[in-house]
Design brief:
Layout: E1 2-6, H1 14-25, E2 29-36, E3 51-56, H2 64-81, E4 85-89, H3 91-97, E5 107-111, H4 124-140, E6 143-146, H5 149-152, E7 162-164, E8 186-190, E9 193-194, H6 196-199, H7 201-210, E10 216-220, E11 223-224, H8 227-233, E12 239-241, H9 247-254, E13 259-262, H10 271-275, H11 279-287, E14 291-294, H12 299-305, E15 309-312, H13 317-330, H14 334-348, H15 351-370
Parallel strand pairs: 1-2, 1-4, 2-3, 4-5, 5-6, 6-7, 8-10, 8-13, 9-11, 10-12, 13-14, 14-15
Helix pairs in contact: 1-15, 3-4, 7-13, 11-14
Amino acid sequence: MKVLYVCRLDGADLRAALMCNSLQAVGHDVVFVGWDRDGGRKKVLLNPSIRQRVLVTDGDHGTARRMADFVRLVWRSIREEKPDVVQAVNEDVAVMTLPLKGIAYKKLVLDVYDSVIANPSRERFGRLVRPLIRDLGNAKADRIIETWELLSELLGRHQKKAVIIANCCPDPGAEHALNYPVGDEVLISVGGTLSRKRDQLDVLVAAAERCPKGSVRILASGLLRDDYARDVFAKHPLVTYRWLEKPRDFLVAAAASDAILYLRGDAAESEYRARVVPNRLFDALSIGRPLVISRDTRISEWVAKHDYGFAWRSGDVEGLSQIFLSLKERRKSLPAFAARLRSDYVNAYTWACMEQRLKAMYDELQGELSHS
C-alpha cells in the first residue's frame, strides 16, 4: 500500500522516522509530508530512500500564513500521491486531511503523539475548540494509535479503534547495559527538550548543590528551550552540557551514569499530560538504569511497582538530593538491577515489538481495503 505520513515535524524526529522506516521495511510505499522549521539541522534519522514533501521555513511557524502553506502542501500531496492510507500525527493534522478522505485516500490512521488536549488552553476559544477537534479526529479515524493504555482510556467510545504503539527507543545494544558508572561523582542524565518549568531544572540544580562538593554531576543534552536552560542551567558548574545529534548517542552517554531523570513539572496541569509515558522510561529500561520520575505522572506508580526507579514528589529538593546520594551505594547491586530491566525491555518494549504491532494494524487495513 501507499502510505502518506503527515506531521508538523521534520525527518529529524525520532518517532516519525521510526514509523516511516518501519512501514517501508514491511513493504509499504511511504511518502513523508512534514514541516522543517530549521533547514540547517541535519535530518539524520529518516531513510534517504523515503520520498519527502516538506515545507521549509526559518521559524515563523505560528502564523496563519505559514499554517495555510502547510495545509496547501498536505492537500496537494494527497491529491498528487493518491495514497491508500494517510497516517496523520495528532488530531489537528488529521482534521486537515478530512476534506479529501474517501476522494483521494481511503483510510485514516490517527497517530496521537501529542494530543491537542494535552496542553491546557488559557483562552475560552481554545478550551471549546480543542475537544471538538479531538472528537472529530477520533470519529473519522479508522485506527487510533496511542502510546500507552492509560491514554487510550481517554478515547471513550472510540477506544475500540486504539492500537498501542509505545515510544520505545531502538535497541542501543546489550553492551551498554554493562557500561557501569565509575568514579567518585554520581552521574545523573537528563535530556530531551529542556526548560525550567517543564523539567524543573532549577529544582534539579538546587538538589545537586545540596549534595557534598564533588559528589554529584549532571550530564545534560538536548534542546535548550528557555533563557534559564541556556544561560543558567547549561552553564552551571555542576552541569556538563553537550549537544548529541542522535537519540542513540544519548543512550550511550547515559549508560555510564547512575540514573536517568524525568522530572516533568507540568504533568499535573492536564489529565492527558499526566498520563503520558515518557521516552525516558524505555531509555532507562534499554540500558538498565533507574528512572527518577515525578509522582505527578500516572506512570510513576507503575515504575515504583516494578522497581524500575524512584517516584519522586515534585519540587522536593531535599528528597531529590537524597536520591542522588543513595545512588553511589546502589552501584553494588546495579549489575543485577540492569540485567532485570534489560530483560524486561528486550521481551516487551523494543521498537521491534512495536513494529510488529504496526505491521499487524496495516495488514488489517489492507485486508479491509481488498474487501471494500
